[in-house]
Design goal:
This protein has about 220 residues and is an alpha/beta fold. The protein contains six helices and ten strands. The strands form two sheets. It has a five-stranded mixed sheet, sandwiched between helices. It has a five-stranded mixed sheet with strand order 8-7-6-9-10.
Length: about 220
């Protein structure tokens, strides 16, 4: 199965093509360039993989949480291509992208949307909890000090320092597959596509940048 995947949630914009369990081509553009460079990246990765649109069996897209603008644009591209090419579209969340290829018993996976604000998923003993908001609030809600090291995926230095200040021993782990679109492309064959493109929605995760005061 040939899969074209795009992601704009986890920093920059990435595109990848995977087939037969391996990545045939991938591209990553750093910065807020999804609008200017996104379609160029898709064309380039198809060319590098030696694939034509007619040879793509399904598409995949990272649906967040993550960077607001890049996330919106990547989903718009994925929906447009899926509609024009008449291919199924697989939504994959950022936590699963970051953890792809690894198995964890106890893990905190962190996505940064903007400075000081994170979305995190904590999985332990078959239970999953998630929170979004200011770093201190999220960590206070999800994790408690333990004697065993906590596997932490995707966390930047400031989050690791905040965990250390809470007397939490961490084992920082980088994603096994990058860029994000490559992990999404590899994960997509085992996932159920969305029944409708309308089901594929962005998960922004973070707090709104502006708080609207309600009138009394």
């Amino acid at each position: 199965m040939n899969v074209l995947a795009v992601d704009g949630a986890l920093g920059g914009f990435s595109a990848a093509v995977a087939g037969d369990g391996g990545v045939a081509g991938c591209s990553f553009e750093s910065g807020n360039v999804a609008l200017e460079r996104g379609l160029f990246a898709v064309s380039a990765v198809l060319r590098d993989a030696g694939q034509r649109p007619a040879e793509i069996d399904r598409l995949a897209v990272g649906v967040g949480p993550g960077t607001f603008t890049g996330l919106r644009i990547a989903i718009a591209y994925a929906k447009a291509l899926a509609a024009v090419w008449e291919r199924p579209l697989v939504p994959i969340d950022s936590f699963d992208i970051l953890e792809f290829g690894r198995t964890f018993d106890d893990v905190l996976t962190v996505v940064v949307g903007r400075p000081g604000v994170i979305s995190a998923r904590y999985r332990r003993a078959g239970q999953t909890r998630r929170a979004s908001g200011r770093t201190a609030d999220v960590l206070g809600e999800l994790v408690r000090p333990t004697e065993a090291p906590l596997d932490v995926v995707g966390a930047p230095e400031d989050v690791l320092h905040a965990l250390a200040e809470r007397a939490i021993i961490v084992r920082s782990i980088d994603p096994l597959v990058s860029p994000a679109a490559a992990a999404a492309a590899l994960a997509a064959p085992s996932r159920e596509p969305a029944r409708s493109l309308h089901e594929v929605r962005a998960d922004y995760g973070e707090l709104p940048a502006v708080t609207i005061v309600k009138k009394r």
